Amino acid sequence: MAARFYLTTAIDYVNGPPHLGHAYEKITADAIARYKRLSGFDTWFVIGNDEHSQNVYRLAKEQGLDPLAYCDRMEGEYRAVWKLLDISYDDFIRTTQPRHRASVQELVRRIAAGGDVYEGFYEGWYCVGCEAFKQEKDLVDGKCPLHSTVDWIKEKNHFFRLSKYRDPLLAHIAAHPEFIEPEARRNEILKLLESGLDDISISRAGQAWGIPVPHDPSSVVYVWFDALINYASAVGFGTDEAVFARWWPAELHVIGKDITRFHTVIWPAMLMSAGLALPRQVFGHGFMSVDGQRMSKSLGNVVDPAAAVAKVGVDPLRLYLIKEVTYGGDGDFSWARLQERYNVDFANNLGNLVSRVAAMAEKYRGGRLAPAEAPGRLATVAAKALEDYRAAMDRLALEEGAAAAFRIVDAGNEYIAETEPWALARDEKNAARLSQVLFDVAEALRVAAVLLLPLIPGSAAEILRRVGETTAADRIRLDSATWRNEGERTIGKGANLWPRIERTIVTDQPVNPTPAPPASAAASTSATASGDKTAVTPAAAPDNRITIDDFLKVDLRVAKVLTAEKVPNSRKLMKLSIDVGTEQRTLVAGIAEAYEPEQLVGKTVGIVFNLKPAKLMGIESNGMILAASPEGGKPVLVAFDGDIAPGSRIR
Ligand code: MSP
């Protein structure tokens, strides 16, 4: 029986659509899942949504929706993006599902039965953005460094004896250092454990949204305690013991570095308390930033993965994220770099090799290639690349795995330049040599494509089809990446898969409205789907009308002015601090000639929420206030016809 491999990603909060940071996690985990399948493991890959956060409840209420109906809608949005990105998940867990609720209640019951839950009183800070209890030492100037605000809460809570698990956790990490990867994350956690652990609150009192604590239905299970259990509930804990026995423990939890503590301290302690086995490994990947700034919904600087797919296609985006960033380290997203990598890796290297193999096979051998003698040096290059690839992928160095596969592609192009098939073709006595050269290059491309299957699945499958592979891509195994100097291959032709993108792709230009290619035909980027290069970088519109998609890129929201002061040495500028529902922000607006600060405090205004920050008179402004500016007159703020909560969207 094949060895099993159960892997998961973090489940996402649904207080907004997925951004490129979430996509980075799902794409890299998908590459691992696909690599494990390729290596013959019986693999189970689970992703999902974390729905019991207070922000979700508030957002749903603001939109006049039942929270569950809101979550249903978000599930659709998330699944659509994961489909576009070719994420091959086997199951999608939601924390509002009955199977999860049953599982959470069973785990809490077990932990309580073991004596690890007691009733107490919590008085302290809570950050809704992080959904975390905060200590003074976690705050900067009395605020959460990520979400600005914290609430002081006082309530009866149920506590988990986390402190009891400090020594067992230290012992586990000492015996299994691979439990936390990469090493930097392990060291952070070891430092934290060495400084001691406090018990934690695992319930919230008086909340309407969540899973009731089994022995106290007036409280709900704290959202993180609830969410972590998804890894067990997704494989039947408390609902289907046979399934649970088959898949638990998980081999790998892929998560972002910001939530390592939850996964490597609280989660294993919960499992120890309940007498369950611990996952083999937690891998904390780094963060995607834009212009060096952490990408996050609350900072309003998120990149929409669908926009990137519309520009370059799904696989170029996947490869860019996998190959450019050392897995475990941080990465900075740049449109210019995405375009550059597309042109180098796809248009030049891979695209060139695919079209040259097809053209030469057709021209010199009528589209059919067979070996005629012993293989040349490409066979050695491919064997070494396969070895490096395996070693890299096995230790989750995804970028090195990608680089190893591309070494074969590069060598294939070099080999053509070196052997000059067109010159060999001039003399009939070179016939066997020419056959072998052409076969070798096609075989090198086949091997490279097998290695690329987990990384750029649609494109690799298309390349395999073109080099005459008859096995369906999902049935191909890694052992088929060994060199085969045998058999006749029919080389298929087709459109150029990745035309160069000459014109700069710019984010704030309209995104190509052509529908994105289906995941299975991922090799055809949006550029080639229409056969028209300009589809990637649309030419100027004949008039200045925009599509609804363009409009929806502008995130307009309601905000409330908390403080206002004129900016010194400026006639026009006013510095405002505003409440945008999820956080407090600073914004600089050119309205000082029209309004006095006192007139503004307490006012409800409209803002552009997702504008990149800009510095005005040395002050960083996050957003833009909506005002009408009559010719030659003073600006007049846009107002609302009724009471409306900060953070509400304007459409
Ligand atoms: N709901 C919790 C996770 C619970 S898991 C039991 C949560 N959700 S989240 O939506 O905020 O984040 C989901 C995942 O995306 C996390 O692993 C997080 O680290 C990751 N990322 C969020 N922003 C990111 C970047 N800018 N870059 C890379 N990963 C990012 O936390």
How is this structure best described in words?
The chain has 651 residues and is of the alpha/beta class. It contains 21 helices and 29 strands. Strand 2, helix 1 (20-38) and strand 3 (42-50) form a beta-alpha-beta unit. Helix 5 (166-175) runs antiparallel to helix 6 (183-194), helix 11 crosses helix 12 and helix 15 (398-419) runs antiparallel to helix 17. The two termini are 55 Å apart. Bound molecules: 5'-O-[(L-methionyl)-sulphamoyl]adenosine. 5'-O-[(L-methionyl)-sulphamoyl]adenosine is lined by residues 10-13, 21-22, 24-25, 50, 227-228, 230, 255-256, 258-259, 287-288, 294-296.
Number of strands: 29
What ligands can be seen in this structure? 5'-O-[(L-methionyl)-sulphamoyl]adenosine
* Uncertain regions spanning at least 5 consecutive residues: 508-543
Indicate the overall shape: globular
Structural class: alpha/beta
Q: How many H/I helical runs?
A: 21
**How would you sum up the major sheet?**
7 strands, parallel
Distance between the termini: 55 Å
